[in-house]
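stage 2 :: seqdesign
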C-alpha cells in the first residue's frame, strides 16, 4: 500500500495553477480527486474541533486517508515532557473515522535526542500508526532507531536543505516528507529526483505514506502525481 499526496491543501499560491477555476470551498475535494492522501497541518497550530475532521472526511472520496500532525503544544512547547493531558485532548478531537491515517510528530530543530525522554513519550502513545520527524543531527543514532523499532513508530525520512535527511526504516510502514530539495517549501522535484525516490520506496518494500511539502510555488500536487505514476499506484482513491 503506497499513498502519495501533499502536506495541506489551503494554498492561495495554487489558485492560478492547480486550483484554476476551482472555488475555494472545493479545493479539498478537488485535490482529493487527484491524490490518495493529504497531511492535515492545522492540527499542529491549534486544536481542531471534531466537526472540522468530520467535514474534511465528508469532502473526500471513499478509501481516502488523512495523516494528522500532532500539536506543537506537545512537540515544541512541552518538548515531549508531561504530555498526558494535551495528548488526551488532541486524540479526543479526532473524528476522521476510517479515513484516519498516521499521526506525525514533527520535532523542533533545537530538540536533541534524549533517550529517556523519547522512551517515555513513545510509551505514552496509543495504538495506531505514529511517525516521528526529528530535525536535529543527534537523532542519527542506533539508540534512536532501536527505540522506534521497539514501538513500531516510523522515522520520517525528510528531504530538505535546512535539516538532516536521515534515511531509516524503523516500522512496518514508511513515512516520507519531501519539503523541497534545494529551496525549502519551494523547489520542484525533477524527473531524476522522482526516479530516485521511487526506487527507495520500492527498496523499502512496505506500506508507505509520502507527502510533498514543496507547496509555496505549487509544485506539490504535480510532483505527487509524478511519483505515483512512477510507482504505478492510483492517482485517486477508490473503494
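stage 2 :: out
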Amino acid at each position: 500500500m503506497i499513498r502519495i499526496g501533499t502536506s495541506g491543501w489551503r494554498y492561495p499560491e495554487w489558485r492560478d495553477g492547480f486550483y484554476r477555476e476551482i472555488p475555494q470551498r472545493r479545493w479539498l475535494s478537488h485535490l482529493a480527486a487527484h491524490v490518495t492522501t493529504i497531511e492535515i497541518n492545522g492540527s499542529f497550530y491549534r486544536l481542531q474541533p471534531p466537526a472540522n475532521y468530520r467535514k474534511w472526511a465528508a469532502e473526500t472520496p471513499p478509501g481516502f486517508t488523512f495523516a494528522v500532525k500532532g500539536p506543537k503544544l506537545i512537540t515544541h512547547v512541552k518538548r515531549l515532557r508531561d504530555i498526558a493531558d494535551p495528548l488526551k485532548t488532541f486524540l479526543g478531537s479526532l473524528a476522521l473515522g476510517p479515513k484516519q491515517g498516521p499521526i506525525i510528530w514533527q520535532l523542533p530543530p533545537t530538540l536533541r535526542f534524549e533517550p529517556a525522554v523519547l522512551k517515555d513519550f513513545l510509551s505514552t502513545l496509543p495504538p495506531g500508526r505514529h511517525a516521528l520527524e526529528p530535525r536535529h543531527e543527534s537523532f542519527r543514532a542506533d539508540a534512536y532507531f532501536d527505540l522506534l523499532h521497539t514501538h513500531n513508530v516510523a522515522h520520517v525520512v525528510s528531504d530538505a536543505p535546512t535539516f538532516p535527511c536521515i534515511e531509516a526504516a524503523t516500522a512496518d510502514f514508511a513515512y516520507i516528507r519531501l519539503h523541497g530539495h534545494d529551496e525549502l517549501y519551494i523547489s520542484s522535484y525533477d524527473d531524476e529526483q522522482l526516479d530516485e525516490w521511487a526506487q527507495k520506496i520500492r527498496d523499502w518494500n512496505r506500506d508507505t505514506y509520502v507527502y510533498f511539502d514543496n507547496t509555496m510555488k505549487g509544485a506539490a500536487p504535480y510532483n505527487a502525481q509524478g511519483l505515483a505514476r512512477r510507482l504505478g499506484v492510483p492517482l485517486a482513491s477508490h473503494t
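stage 3 :: structure notes
- The first strand starts at residue 2 and ends at 7.
- Strands lie at 2-7, 37-40, 65-69, 100-106, 130-133, 154-159, 173-178, 207-212.
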